[in-house]
Amino acid sequence: MTVRFTSGSSDADRGINTAIVLVASTYALTKLSPSTMTTGMYGWTIFEILRYMPEHNWSVYEEAPKTNPVLSKMMISGVVYSLGDWIAKCYEVKPNFQFDRTRMFRSGLVGFTLHGSLSHYYYHFCEVAFDQTTWSVLWNNIFFVVLGFLHFEPPVTIFSEYHQHVSPQLLSPS
User: Fold this and answer.
1) Is residue 65 part of a domain?
2) 154: domain range?
3) What is the pLDDT of residues 59-109, one digit of tens each?
4) Which Gene Ontology CC terms are recorded (predicted)?
């Protein structure tokens, strides 16, 4: 048995969706705003607030992965998955604020709980694996060959020394 929640009128749904978007946007802007803008803006004009808010928000956005990398990636993925679902609905020629809240929430939840955290660890693993295998061999080869050229040695000498000294070291188990 499938339980379906049926919405009321389309206008009521769009009103609720519009309110959700406005509240979420306002919360995000005030959460990212400097404390001087939200607690006491003595002497600040609305133009100063609007001028400095994007700059400050960008610095907060850049700082977040440094202080808490997994949570910030989870939050970014959740927001992007939700927005992606909304964009997909707009692409289906639905009016802008006529989207399925539960579907959008499910998409955001998957992005938040799974994609953000798993991608963090997956890319970290790939970075370490690539760095310890392919990249280290490639970089050592480039380094040795370029040093030989900068020492004005002929290519035959460089490659014979490479096969004699460097290649066995790169292929040794420890």
Assistant:
1) no
2) 132-171
3) 888 888 899 899 888 988 988 998 888 888 877 767 677 777 888 889 889
4) cytoplasm; membrane
